[in-house]
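Q: Hi! First time doing this. I have a protein sequence and I read that you can turn it into a structure. Is that right? Here it is:
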Amino acid sequence: MKNILFVGSDPVYSSQMAETFASVYGKQKLNAFSKSTEQGKGLLFAKAEASMKMKGYELILKKNDASIADEQFDCIINIVNEEQPLQCTFSNSKTWQIPKTENLTLKELNVVRDLIELKVKQLIATL
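A: Yes, that's right. Below is the predicted 3D structure, encoded as structure tokens:
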């Protein structure tokens, strides 16, 4: 089993969306974790949660920093929006650029959610 960490730097739970999809589609191949550098609240969480429920999934929010600190990761996925510079990379990291999500409508957020889902499926296919 591979340990994969999704690190999101936007406040609309992109890393948690990726963790949710990875946990569903890759449960035989990987352990998924997520970490956000910015945490959204209120309406942003409601939008992300509603978007995932439309796909039939509950947004995963269970991992905390302590559990992540104890893990060794086979791959780290940096999820950044198109307006951000690329984050620092490590030999076992990849960067996914997605549209900026902060001010999107639910319909627009669903398009980004589907992009994240596709990227997760592509990642799993390479494991």
